[in-house]
Design a protein that fits this description.
Blueprint: E1 5-7, E2 16-18, E3 28-32, H1 65-77, E4 82-86, H2 96-104, E5 111-116, H3 125-131, E6 135-139, H4 145-151, H5 158-170, E7 177-182, H6 191-198, E8 204-209, H7 227-235, E9 240-242, E10 253-257, E11 263-267, E12 280-283, E13 288-290, E14 299-300, H8 301-306, H9 311-324, H10 329-332, H11 335-339, H12 348-351
Parallel strand pairs: 3-4, 3-12, 4-5, 5-6, 6-7, 7-8, 8-11
Antiparallel strand pairs: 1-2, 9-10, 10-11, 12-13, 13-14
Helix pairs in contact: 1-2, 1-9
Bound molecules: S-adenosylmethionine and iron/sulfur cluster (2 copies).
Length: 353
């Protein structure tokens, strides 16, 4: 490898850290296990596009667990310590705990998480915890039954999602984060009630600005509620104070209730981009590696794997991709460009957020 692999005194083990063209290390790998989903959230997989005849990946097109584990091991050796399983809806994979077991055994992985809509979580939460999963992030956009149902594309059952949350808590998959995508005129009027509900629960609610990911969700800037506005709104009800980052590169801006009732995060990719500290790579279910959520191209690792690439070859491929990485879409975003869909971007359900 090259001189870009420089010793980094920040790292616990003081080992060589690989940095991209903008000097960002590789710390996180998001693994999308499948592209299918039991929801049709209009901001992610709108029903009219993802209809009954839509062709999702077939099993042989998806990476096998062994293929995923091979890539994950190489990524861990290159510095990845955080891994997250996502999708589509990862819990549609009935054998997910087998993959979790394999990932949990990889040396250097000290944070193994799952992002899910939690509809199918209750029956498997303990099994996943036993397999080595550390924690879950649950996507839950509103506690208003009608709004929730609409935002899941008419497919979600709120009571079942809340059962999933409870089961995750009981299984120790904590701290649980709750992701709320806020859309103006859709669920913004229900955000304070949701926050009130989870105050004191130990769960960390994260308010996410609606992003122009992919090309199919009809994103418009006027549907984005800037985090700053939400913060002002919250301050009409509660006293809040800013918290320090947990670690460099954390994407959420953290606040806590002054009365000790917990933490809230803001993910403000549109109004306050954080590309400067973005340390994530994303692997799609069919083995494409993307270095940005807004990427319009990736690298086909499945082809290499199926042409018998060994670990050394994969290490070279991954490190070359990372060393050349210069993505900073959110910092360069021009809303009028995104709205016109000038760029063909990868869809969120393929790379999992
Ligand atoms: N199905 C799982 C879920 O919903 O948790 C995992 C995959 S989903 C693509 C991952 C996350 O991306 C969810 O929290 C979802 O709310 C978020 N997401 C999807 N489309 C988005 C968009 N356009 N803007 C912001 N977040 C989005
Ligand atoms: Fe499915 Fe998650 Fe996308 Fe909603 S956000 S459609 S639950 S993948
Ligand atoms: Fe990272 Fe791309 Fe998002 Fe910037 S736009 S924070 S580089 S994923």
């Amino acid at each position: 490898m090259s001189s870009d692999l420089i010793p980094d005194d920040d790292s616990a083990a003081n080992v060589a850290v690989m940095r991209d063209a903008l000097r960002r290390p590789l710390h996180d790998l998001r693994i999308s296990v499948l592209d299918q989903c039991n929801f049709r959230c209009p901001y992610c997989m709108p029903e009219d596009e993802f209809h009954a005849d839509y062709e999702f990946l077939r099993k042989q097109q998806r990476l096998s667990y062994n293929e995923v584990l091979k890539i994950a091991r190489v990524a861990a050796r290159l510095g990845v310590s955080k891994m997250r399983l996502t999708g589509g809806e990862p819990l549609l994979d009935k054998h997910l705990s087998t993959l979790v077991t394999g990932l949990a055994e990889i040396p250097g992985v000290d944070d193994l998480a799952l992002t899910t809509n939690a509809m199918l979580l209750a029956p498997v939460a303990q099994q996943l915890a036993d397999a080595g999963l550390h924690r879950v992030t649950v996507s839950l956009d509103s506690l208003d039954e009608d709004v929730f149902r609409r935002m899941s594309g008419g497919r979600g059952n709120l009571a079942q999602v809340l059962e999933g949350l409870d089961a995750a808590q009981e299984a120790g998959l904590t701290p649980i984060k709750i992701n709320v995508v806020v859309q103006r005129g859709v669920n913004d009027h229900t955000v304070l009630d949701l926050l009130e509900h989870f105050r004191g629960s130990g769960h960390i609610v994260r308010l996410i600005e609606f992003m122009d990911v992919g090309n199919r969700n009809g994103w418009r800037l006027d549907q984005v509620v800037p985090s700053r506005q939400l913060l002002d709104l919250m301050r009409t009800r509660w006293q809040l104070r800013r918290m320090d980052q947990n670690y460099p590169g954390e994407v959420a801006r953290r606040y806590e209730y002054v009365d000790g009732q917990g933490e809230i995060g803001f993910i403000s990719s549109v109004t306050e981009p954080f590309c400067g500290s973005c340390s994530r790579a994303r692997l799609s279910a069919d083995g494409m590696l993307y270095t940005c959520l807004f990427a319009n191209q990736g690298t086909d690792l499945r082809e290499s794997l199926r042409n018998d690439a060994d670990d050394e070859e994969l290490t070279n491929i991954l490190s070359q991709i990372w060393l050349q990485r210069a993505d900073r879409y959110s910092e360069l975003r021009r809303p009028e460009m995104a709205e016109a869909h000038v760029l063909r971007k990868v869809e969120m359900y393929r790379i999992g957020g």
